[in-house]
Amino acid sequence: MGPELAGREYAGHLTDADLRLLAAVAAGPAGTQPAGTGPAADGSWLRGDPVALLAVLEHPGTFDAVMGQDQAGAGWTGLASPFLVFAVFVQRAAAELAAVGHVPERTGPRQRVPLFDAGALREFLAEPERRLFLAELLASFTRVASGRYRSRVGGRMRTRRFSELDPVRLAGLLEAVPQAERPGVYRRLGDVTLFLTGVFPDYAATAVLGPVDAARLLRAAGLPAAQHERLAEAPAIELLEHLGARWYRASRDLAPIPTARIAVVGEVADRFRQARRVLNHIADRYLFLPGSSWFTQPAP
Q: Is 2 in a helix, a strand, or coil?
């Protein structure tokens, strides 16, 4: 995708209030733009300069400005949109992981061991399009879609429910939607798997899958029957990583047009574990601070 295109994609998500906040950072002591009024102050120039926009997002002062909103009593959503908040969290994670040798990894609920693979996480975050991917993913789950659909079961039409936070029910849509819509369903299956294992890993490890649910997801993923037993016995996080990567690849492979954004989906598929562990780091550090939780625990 490249920095310029990634910057344009970032700009498409930012509100006018976001741009004013970023312009204030750019006009600060370490910034590159003059303070004052007009385009420099309202930040509109950032929409036409994607490289400069990325530079401001990466500036340490941007994280401080967004976090400082809460200290000023405005609340994080008072000025910055959820997307901008998540974007600076991802940028901050990139800066933090650049200076560490190991990152905690979960071995069970509330259990951590150090893994000396921070380099792999740094490599994942090195590309702006992957950082954009994670910010978009987090922002997309601030509101979760759910509903009903009709599906033929045993020769009869039945009503079923789905939720974007329930991969088992979401996978049922694959049997009900036209072929042309399946890439979108596969993409969202990859998203929910990455989101749950990244933001709610303890829940994902203990509550998402039972034996019957695992079998349903393995069938929905189109895996050969010979692999079902081996994968069904794998730890839940390992199984979900395998399924999430497979669903992302299915979305990429079935997409009618191979765009740059679809290519990023394939990159995340090949680095699913690194993406998941970056989200673990962000969740531990920022998403569930006292008084500032962005997500509620999924219902069992």
A: coil
For residues 107-112, average pLDDT:
66
CA distance linking residue 137 with residue 151, whole number of Å: 28
Residue position matching structure tokens 């969290």: 89
Q: Interior CA angle at 278 toward 264 and 69, to 5°? A: 100
Residue whose structure tokens are 């950072």: 25
**pLDDT given for residue 290 in this prediction:** 65
Give SS3 for 210. coil
171: nearest Cα among 99, 91, 247: 247
Q: Do the Cβ atoms of 121 and 97 come closer than 8 Å?
A: yes
Q: Are 103 and 97 in contact (CB under 8 A)?
A: yes
CB neighbour class for 66 (10 Å; exposed up to 12, middle 13-18, buried from 19): buried
Q: What is the tens place of the pLDDT at every residue in 53-75?
A: 999 999 989 998 888 754 444 44
Element (H, E) at 105: strand 103-108
Instruction: Give tens-digit pLDDT for 257-277.
Output: 989 999 999 999 999 999 999
Q: Please state the three-class secondary structure of 34-57 as a single string.
A: CCCCCHHHHCHHHHHCHHHHHHHH
The angle formed by the CA atoms of residues 248, 108 and 274, to the nearest 5 degrees, is 35
Report the C-alpha gap between 125 and 88 in whole angstroms. Answer: 13
| DSSP code at position 175 | G
State the average pLDDT over residues 238-256: 94
Residue 77 confidence (pLDDT): 43
Measuring CA to CA, which residue among 241, 247, 148 is closest to residue 188? 247
**Mean pLDDT of all residues belonging to the chain:** 83
